[in-house]
Specification:
Distance between the termini of chain B: 61 Å
Chains: A mainly alpha, B alpha+beta, C mainly alpha
Shape of chain B: elongated
Structural class of chain B: alpha+beta
Oligomer: heterotrimer
Number of helices of chain C: 12
Order of helices and strands of chain C: HEHHHHHHHHHHH
Keywords (chain A): Cell membrane, Electron transport, Heme, Iron, Membrane, Metal-binding, Transmembrane, Transmembrane helix, Transport
CATH architecture of the largest domain in chain C: Orthogonal Bundle
Structural class of chain C: mainly alpha
Function (chain A): Component of the menaquinol:cytochrome c reductase complex.
Radius of gyration of chain C: 33 Å
Protein name (chain A): Menaquinol:cytochrome c reductase cytochrome b subunit
Strand order of the largest sheet of chain B: 1-10-9-4-3-2
CATH topology of the largest domain in chain C: Helix Hairpins
InterPro entries (chain A): Cyt_b/b6_N, Cytb/b6-like_sf, Cytochrome_b_N_euk/bac, Di-haem_cyt_TM
Number of helices of chain B: 3
Pfam families (chain A): Cytochrome_B
CATH superfamily of the largest domain in chain B: Rieske [2Fe-2S] iron-sulphur domain
Chain lengths: 223, 180, 294
Amino acid sequence: MFKNVYDWIDERLDITPIWRDVADHEVPEHVNPAHHFSAFVYCFGGLTFFITVIQILSGMFLTMYYVPDIINAYKSVEYLQTQVAFGQIVRGMHHWGASLVIVMMFLHTLRVFFTGSYKAPREMNWVVGMLIFFVMIGLGLTGYLLPWDNKAYFATKVTLEIANSIPVLGPVMKELLQGGTIVGAETLTRFFAIHVFFLPAVLLILLVGHFIMIRRQGISGPL
Amino acid sequence: MSHQHEEHESSHKPPVRKEMSRRQFLTYTLGGATAFMVAGVTLPMVRFAVDPILRDKGEGAFVKVAEVSKITNEPQEFHFELKQQDGWYLSTANLVAWIRKDESGNIYALSPICKHLGCTVGWNSNSNFPDQYHCPCHGAHYTKEGKQLAVASKPLDEYKVMIKDDWVYLGEIVPNTIVS
Amino acid sequence: MAHNDKSKQEKVVFVGDSRVRRGNGFVTPPDYTAYPGKSEAFIPNFLLKEWMVGVVVLVGFLVLTISEPAPLGFPADPSASVIPMPDWYFLFLYQYLKYPYASGNYVILGTIGIPTVAFGALLLAPFLDTSKERRFYKRPIASALMFLSLASLVYLTNFAWTHYKHELEKAGVEPEHIQREEQALENRLAGLPPAGSEPQAEIAIVDKDDPAMEFYTKATCISCHGADLKGSGGPSLRGIGDKHDKEAILAIIKEGYNGKMPEMYTAAMNAGLTDEDVDHLAEWLAKQKAEAVE
């Protein structure tokens, strides 16, 4: 039954080579932690992706209760955290996951750097990876404001002041991010839109590029 | 993966005892680990998402509406407020009930929400239909027990009624029990 | 990819009139025979190892999320006095911008100059470090710069964090999310609903015309707790009687509260209030109960 459905689709789309390539490609020994324990450093990239998937899922579920509005944002976060079953865990996943993803990505970057894996022919993948890093930082920055508690509010004010201190462009950038002259209702909706739609879209495109390049070029050789 | 399983099984046909091959073992372990990770990540989230349907609804609270002595055989309109906790938002719903006493003295309260398309019906509001509930939207009308006479397919809903200390208390809205 | 020449000779057959090639169902993946040692297939052999690591990380992660609730402070209030604190991974930037060469007259250098150079260099590392050598000890400049950056990251983050802890200690306050949790716990122990489910209805002032209202103004309570007792710099005093009784309120007036509110007794005396007045004020405040109004 399953096989018939599969064959039917495969005949039309020829999907077998795609997943065969993913499934059957050989992974060399020097990145296999079962052969060399030290090869666990090669796991950080995969773990970053794993946590990213958790972030996307938990974020999707959190928006079922969250409202990006200065009157209701805090109340809805408090409600989902204290009243909804497992709300504490789902918000915890998103909160701690945000930190964990930064940690994992940092370690992954260091691994790539110190094994010199960014060298020719993998320069482009390093650049894409760094862009992913910046997008993640942006996600952390915009997500921090969303619960609309004092900590979020004042940290965001500081961040926007930093943006403000950039000559010429600064004040414009600040006002653009702020959506007005004060940190308030419009700032929150803006940060929400950036956090939930713009940056994740960019992130997904970059991730696809990152993975395609890894498959194309293969993993870097042993040192 | 299914391809390889078959290849494998066909090449091992002669032996009768079926032992798990290394590859199968790996595949099962991989499947188990996958299932664990998927479950570990999504179960809390799914429980989180379906919380509203698993929530204890509680008995709808009763609201003090009118004194028993004021209820007559003729339906009368009563306004009352119901506090609703809607997530983190507490609101007050303004509700209307038409309360009357039937011939044997039973008190019942009808909701004036027309069962056709949800307009608000009124008692004696149209001179063509005396002593009936009439809906201005599409002309649905009902008897004083709430039985539908035209357009609508169901009788008017009623409120749960509780009498305590000479006061009428109204509870949640339930399908009409008087006419059916 | 080494098999390109072979596939060129094969006749390409398309499915119907589409551009989908009728495949033979198998693509030979690139091999790693050039690398020493054993290599193994991605699925299931290698992925299994990767996912063992994943399972361990997931279990640790779930334990963390269950044991440690995500922090949540009090609702944002522009007039509140809070020590601003970015998320931990911005601490280094936050700290670095406090240094003289990154602020004041040099703010351009601080906000644009150095970060652009540092992050730009990181972004373009492959084009700056173009040698063939991959081992980190064979490319001293790149590695030294990275180690230096790492050390400064750790130093700056740690410095900012200890500074923040110190500030908190000096101000005698706890981070808000801890305060909020303690409050929630107190409420739970007292049998009150958690703050979230509480209707946000306004609590009215009890006995508005009491002379205590005048003492309240005179004793300068008004400047922090607001003309309508709703609070401005300090917290709202509406319904304060639910939290403290008369004795406790008197003690707070005389000794201050939580390190945040100074002792106000002297101020009251200087304003010409008598002991009885203060006593009356405390009594009146103790009467400010949420239910008393209805």
